[in-house]
Amino acid sequence: MHDPHDHSHDHEHSHDHGDGQDPHAPQRDHDAVEMSGYEALEETLRLLLIEKGIITHDEVARQIDLMDSRSPALGAQVVVRAWLDAEFKGRLLRDAREALKEFDVDIGSLAEFKVVENTPETHNVVVCTLCSCYPKMLLGVPPAWYKSMAYRSRTVIDPRGVLTEFGLDIPLSREVRVHDSTADLRYIVLPMRPADTDELDETALVSLITRDCMIGTAEPSRVGRGA
Amino acid sequence: MENRGTLQIGQLVRVDDRSAVGHCRAPWYLRGQVGEIVEVLGVFRDPEKLAYHKPGVPRIPLFKVRFKQSQIWPGYVGSPRDVLEADLTANWLVSALFADRHEKNLSEKV
């Protein structure tokens, strides 16, 4: 029988270890729902790797912290920079990976990356029909709906219908361009700057940009944002 | 498919309509469809090999291909201008001209 305390503890803990619960273990979102086969597989594999000394609890916890530390706020800063600086925007659209070196982004682990620009002629929307590829480095963890079968299948078949359900009606005069991220590239949408925002400073502009604006299921708006 | 190395921007390509066992990154809904190459994205390790812990080399060229929505989906609701773009590896693409000629040759032989 494995003693959960036979690994070395070189860090401080204020919490109790005597309850048999691992305080570092990833928390499940729905503990009222029975664990799925994949969740059980993940837990078994993780505990085995830790028991064999290949990874540590702390490494798992740090990786979760890293994932949680990324949020759409980073993507919004990049968008505003592009709105305010045409030269940066040009570089961002040409070679996003290179342009993003100026931001606090983990470039080393950044997948190939592409920014697609919304214009009065074209609206872009991103989906991954094969799995759930998502620009985590700039937007954080994807929302549950992005990974749902409904979004993944319907966005390619009926993008305008899906966008309408998100409250976004694109006129027929404007092309809808769906990006199915089937390979190594990750996509983020550069939304259009709303009208009547000339007097807003950078912070106020950032607050207009939601995660969905950068997936392409919303457009930035001053309405309802208190700006 | 001896023309694989010559794919370039502006060229019409057909996504190969073959079935594949295991992991593959050419979606079913695009197989057999004709699109236009709009960007050459570089060379990448083969996902069909990587998925099985193989190195996936030599790397294969990756292309951004643009499809007309109204061509992919019969009865598509939207604008005839609406498009879909997907990133597809060279081993799934055949020059549409070549593919159509090939199909014609086959049908003439029957």
Structural class of chain A: alpha/beta
Low-confidence stretches of chain A: 1-20
CATH architecture of the largest domain in chain A: Alpha-Beta Complex
Query: Would you report the number of β strands of chain A?
Result: 4
* Biggest sheet strand line-up of chain B: 4-3-2-1-5
Strand content of chain A: 5-15%
**Molecular shape of chain A:** globular
Estimated share of beta-strand residues of chain B:
25-35%
Give the CA-based shape of chain B.
globular
Might you state the CATH topology name of the largest domain in chain A? Nitrile Hydratase, Chain A
Q: Any low-confidence stretches of chain B, pLDDT <50, length ≥5?
A: none
Largest sheet of chain B: 5 strands, antiparallel
Tell me the distance between the termini of chain B: 21 Å
Radius of gyration of CA atoms of chain B, rounded to a whole number: 15 Å
- Indicate the CATH class of chain B: Mainly Beta
Total helices of chain B: the number is 3
What oligomeric state do these chains adopt? heterodimer
Largest interface: A-B, 23 and 25 residues
Features:
heterodimer; A: about 230 residues; alpha/beta; Nitrile Hydratase, Chain A; 2 domains; two-stranded parallel sheet; B: alpha+beta; SH3 type barrels
What do these coordinates show?
The complex is a heterodimer of chains A (227) and B (110). Chain A has 227 residues and is α/β, with parallel strands linked by helices. In chain A, 39% of the residues lie in helices and 11% in strands. Chain A folds into two domains: 37-68, no CATH class; 71-215, Nitrile hydratase alpha /Thiocyanate hydrolase gamma (Nitrile Hydratase, Chain A), CATH 3.90.330. Chain A has helices spanning 37-51, 57-69, 72-84, 86-94, 96-99, 136-139, 144-147, 149-157, 159-165, 202-206, 211-215; strands at 112-117, 122-127, 175-180, 185-190. Chain A has a two-stranded parallel ribbon. Chain A has a two-stranded parallel ribbon with strand order 2-3. Mean pLDDT of chain A is 86; it is low at 1-20. Chain B has a five-stranded antiparallel sheet. Chain B is built from three helices and five strands; from the N terminus they run ββαβαββα. Chain B has helices at 47-50, 69-72, 96-109; strands spanning 12-15, 34-44, 60-68, 83-89, 93-95. Chain B has a single domain, classed as Roll (SH3 type barrels), CATH 2.30.30. The chains are: A alpha/beta (227), B alpha+beta (110).
